[in-house]
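A.,

Following up on our hallway conversation. Structure tokens first:
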């Protein structure tokens, strides 16, 4: 936002509302002002999205890539590395999330999920016992080279995982699933969203 304010006549009124696709179903919006944004503008924008039924993170400061995108990108990089090295297929990667952590993450995010993994000791126990493995060589936070071979492997893997379903079919399936998750977790009333 700060970069976009440089030529603005009224920079105090500029704020970012960063939604997620599909915006008609995903409740998250990250709101942040720039260095010259009036704090009241940020409060107003956050309230606007809340009244519109969104779940709002009002960020204290600008973060390149926002919060959710940065977390998604870390997962995406690891997935690309696994496809590039033949460690997993696209189908394996998607299944590992939809049938694993994704189910927990729909209820509580990764931080509380890891705290629960620490048992009665919570996050302190988790960090004390598993924290040292954060330096394990199996994580690769650098992006792999997106060469033609990786590009083609990911495209072919997605085609295989789609198993004949069109983009429209996949969108409808995704939307039905998101609605079901929102309803089952009490974040969408029974009559809302068809």
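Then the amino acids I'd put at each of the 194 positions:
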């Amino acid at each position: 936002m700060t970069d976009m304010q440089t030529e603005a006549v009224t920079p105090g009124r500029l704020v970012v509302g960063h939604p997620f696709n599909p915006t008609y179903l995903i409740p998250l919006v990250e709101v942040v002002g720039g260095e010259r944004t009036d704090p009241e503008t940020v409060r107003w924008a956050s309230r606007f999205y809340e009244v519109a039924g969104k779940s709002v993170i009002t960020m204290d400061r600008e973060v390149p890539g926002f919060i959710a995108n940065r977390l998604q990108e870390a997962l995406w990089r690891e997935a690309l590395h696994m496809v590039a090295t033949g460690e997993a297929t696209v189908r394996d990667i998607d299944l590992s999330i939809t049938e694993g952590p994704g189910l927990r993450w729909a209820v509580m995010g990764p931080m509380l999920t890891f705290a629960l993994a620490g048992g009665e000791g919570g996050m302190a126990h988790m960090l004390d016992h598993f924290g040292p493995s954060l330096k394990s060589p199996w994580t690769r936070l650098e992006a792999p080279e997106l060469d033609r071979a990786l590009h083609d492997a990911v495209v072919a893997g997605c085609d295989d995982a789609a198993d004949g379903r069109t983009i429209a079919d996949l969108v409808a399936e995704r939307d039905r699933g998101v609605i079901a998750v929102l309803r089952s977790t009490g974040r969408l009333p029974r009559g809302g969203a068809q």
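The mean pLDDT is 90. Curious whether your intuition agrees with the design.

B.
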